[in-house]
Amino acid sequence: MADREVYLDNSATTRVFPEVVKLMDRIYLEEYGNPSSLHHKGVEAENRIREAKQIFADILKCSTRNIYFTSCGTESDNIALIGGALANRREGKHIITTRIEHPAILETTKFLKEQGFEITYLPVDANGRVRVADVEAEVRPDTILVSIMHTNNEIGALEPIAQIGEAIKRRNPKTLFHVDAVQGFGKAYIYPKRMHIDLLSASGHKIHAPKGVGLLYIGDGVKVRNILFGGGQQNGMRSGTENVAGIAGMALAAKMIYADLDAELDKLYRLKELFLREVTAIEGVHVNGLTGRESAPHVISLSIEGVRAEVLLHALEDKGIYVSAGSACSSNRPHISDTLVAIGTPKEFLDSTIRFSTSVMNTEEDMRYTAEALKELLPMLRKYTRY
Ligand code: PLP
After folding, report:
1. Are 284 and 305 in contact (CB under 8 A)?
2. Integer angstrom CA distances of residue 36 from 64, 165, 200, 241
3. What is the whole-number distance in angstroms between the Cα of residue 39 and the centre of ligand 1?
């Protein structure tokens, strides 16, 4: 085992902030009531949820009535798409999304297609950006929903969400706009109303809160059919006893991040720039997507000539460095990345792409150590790699 640990897989999941653990510990051990109970312990739990809603409403500049809690980003995406499609099917059956969405969207649209909906998959440019004109050209009178991610999880492409929102509403004011902001929330200022967003998904474990909690923003007057049936919690939109500790933990993590977002973004972009400067000097290393402020602050995707990603991943692991091969947050299955294919990545790189994803917990020293490890490992691995 290496003495050093450098965790660069923050797009897969993050380490929980100690302050969040402390708060959750207190809720688990002392404030453990069910928010639906009428007694004091229930009210205490309900207050935690109310406070959490207020924190998210302040960050997203919306009302607390727009905030719903789920179990993860995947669940938020499922409710938005399935619930949105079912509630609006009388208006039409056409849904638009992109080729570079997370499986939480792409598998859900596959299901909706089986249910009789028509799905249009938009292409992206070589940097993974959706063209606003393409969205505009595809929105029709029977388009009920458009779902486009805020930040791509594999190459860190930032989509022009506000312009897309405007274009959708110009073409058809009734079309709902869903944004999967699982990678963007906590890394950008996102204001649904101003950006014409009707539905927005976020996830706790990507922002230093625990796994098992997600958020769904639903705009005023937006029709969504509930897809879980039960006790009617959260206005019947999402039955099931709320994960009070997780919700309070996610709210605290978000509050901490947004209290100082500009400084955190400066730090992440500095780490990215430093790392890219070092690694692009190595022969046969290619950066996927844009860099600098036109890209996500925390995602760095490199295609490396002559080295298989999985081999490199394990060689880095031996040095205490944790990264992902292509995209890793979906499953352990070998999987050809939809994003890399969509941006036109040459075939020989599909299997040679590594994602480094940072968080505010990383340091310049982490990035230098990782760059040095690459400089040392790549020539060695190339010597032994046979295709
Ligand atoms: N959407 C995007 C863009 C993601 O990156 C992820 C997870 O990596 C998800 C959705 C799913 O989120 P969760 O793991 O909370 O279900």
Report:
1. yes
2. 18, 37, 26, 8
3. 36
C-alpha 332/C-alpha 290 separation (Å) is 27
Q: Which of 329, 340, 360, 377 is catalytic?
A: 329
Q: What is the CATH number of the domain that holds 223?
A: 3.40.640.10
Ligand 1 centre distance from Cα of residue 376 (Å): 33
Confirm whether 60 is domain-assigned: yes
Final residue in a domain of this structure, among 238, 259, 280: 259
Q: For residue 69, how far is the Cα from the chain centroid?
A: 16
74 lines ligand 1 (CB under 6 A): yes
* Residues 239 and 289 occupy one common structural domain: no
Q: Select from 239, 259, 279 the last residue of a domain.
A: 259
Answer yes or no: do 298 and 236 share one domain.
Answer: no
Say whether 62 is catalytic: no
Residue 87 sits in the same domain as residue 231: yes
Pocket test for ligand 1, best of 16, 203, 205, 331 (most atoms within 8 A of CB): 203
Q: How far, in Å, CA of 237 to CA of 150, rounded? A: 24
312 occurs within a structural domain: yes
The reply to whether ligand 1 has any atom less than 6 angstroms from the CB of 153 is yes
Compute φ and ψ for 233, nearest 5 degrees. Answer: -60, 160
Per-residue tens of pLDDT for the chain, all 387 residues: 688 999 999 999 999 999 999 999 999 999 999 999 999 999 999 999 999 999 999 999 999 999 999 999 999 999 999 999 999 999 999 999 999 999 999 999 999 999 999 999 999 999 999 999 999 999 999 999 999 999 999 999 999 999 999 999 999 999 999 999 999 999 999 999 999 999 999 999 999 999 999 999 999 999 999 999 999 999 999 999 999 999 999 999 999 999 999 999 999 999 999 999 999 999 999 999 999 999 999 999 999 999 999 999 999 999 999 999 964 444 555 577 899 999 999 999 999 999 999 999 999 999 999 999 999 999 999 987 655
Does 1 map to a domain?
Answer: no
